[in-house]
Design brief:
Strand content: 15-25%
Number of strands: 11
Helix content: 25-40%
CATH topology: Rossmann fold
CATH superfamily: Class I glutamine amidotransferase (GATase) domain
CATH architecture: 3-Layer(aba) Sandwich
Length: about 210
């Protein structure tokens, strides 16, 4: 089984690494980082880069596709090379997945039309433009399409899909070995829980 993680300029690191460190532990699977061109690809901070092993044209039939998000998804949403690749590989994938605003790339490629999907809470209202039905759930399954909400939810998505593919015990083993036992110091991880003034401020400065 081949898992392809799409990289592009200014993607969010944890969006890619969360699924990589969970779903990427699927026994017998090969994980490949893919981009328009092989080589280092900078994250949204500019301080970190991941290396794309292969160009888009070299990865044609992955079993699983993971599309991370970033703070400016509109750039790749208008990139024919990325959208054409997503449509082409989706024809034969077993699972097509995204984290955060990565769902907007899937939607722009026409893959989420009529489907339930999620994204980062600041971007949920953009999904209906492409025929998708937004939901605030953390991980959403609709057929073979699996979308995760913002950033950290990619870990949950990876574990959930790992359990579906390899069974609960494998997923539980990965969760235990990565010691994924969230105990956040603040209960402000969603707009429903965070202070109203903080949510309003972030809505005011979002792209």
């Amino acid at each position: 089984m081949q898992i392809a993680v799409l990289l592009y300029d200014r993607f969010t690191a944890l969006d890619a690494i969360g699924p990589f460190d969970t779903l990427g532990r699927l026994p017998g699977a090969e994980t490949v980082f893919v981009a328009e061109r092989p080589g280092p690809v900078r994250t949204d901070s500019g301080a970190l880069a991941l290396v794309a092993d292969k160009a888009l044209g070299e990865v044609t039939r992955p079993d699983i596709v993971i599309v991370p998000g970033g703070p400016h998804p509109e750039v790749e949403m208008e990139n024919p090379a990325v959208l054409d690749w997503l449509r082409a590989v989706d024809a034969t994938t077993t699972w097509t997945t995204s984290v955060c605003t990565g769902s907007l790339l899937l939607a722009a490629a026409g893959l989420l039309d009529g489907r339930r999907a999620t994204s980062h809470w600041l971007y949920l209202d953009r999904l209906p433009r492409f025929g998708a039905a937004p939901t605030g759930e953390r991980v959403v399954f609709d057929g073979k399409y699996v979308t995760a909400a913002g950033v950290s939810s990619g870990i949950d998505m990876g574990l959930t899909l790992l359990g579906r593919i390899a069974g609960d015990e494998v997923a539980q083993t990965v969760q235990l070995m990565t010691e994924y036992d969230p105990q956040p110091p603040y209960d402000a991880g969603s707009p429903d829980k965070a202070p109203a003034e903080l949510v309003a401020r972030l809505r005011g400065v979002s792209p």
